[in-house]
Amino acid sequence: MFIVPVSRQSHEVSRQLTRLFDDAFGRAFDNVYGPTGTDTVRNPALDVVESERAYTVKLEMPGVAKEDVKVSIEGRQVSVQAQSQRTDERREGERVVYRERAVTSYARSFTLPAEVDQTEAGARLEHGVLTLTLPKRGARSASQITVN
Fold first, then answer.
1. Which residues have CB under 8 Å from 119's CB, separation 6+?
2. Where would I find the H helices in the chain?
3. Which CATH class is domain 40-86+99-145?
4. Which is the most buried residue in 70, 80, 103, 146, by most CB within 10 A?
């Protein structure tokens, strides 16, 4: 996938359609299998900014710890995977009455216009936002980067 917006509104229309289908098809099976939010794989929203030397990519991944994020780079292809962990913090005598928050997996792959220098790439996760700094270069080997 190349990240080239057709118009300013096309990105928002695309996200709204994705939500519409996710909601419609997700709820269609709730009565048969229970709520579908327990094993959901989400496509996190992302922003890509290009400078002369690098790409800066920001992805929304609330509830994810940096240890649970995997970023891999192969040429121009960038893949991000993560999973939030649910902690059952209950005190003695308490019971769960209702639960909506679930373990959520995030996965997103995209192709950039120029190849990325994996040795100089960096990642930072703060307040549920993963920020990737991807310097441009002609590197061809596959690599994984560490999230700080």
1. 139, 143
2. 10-28, 30-33
3. mainly beta
4. 80
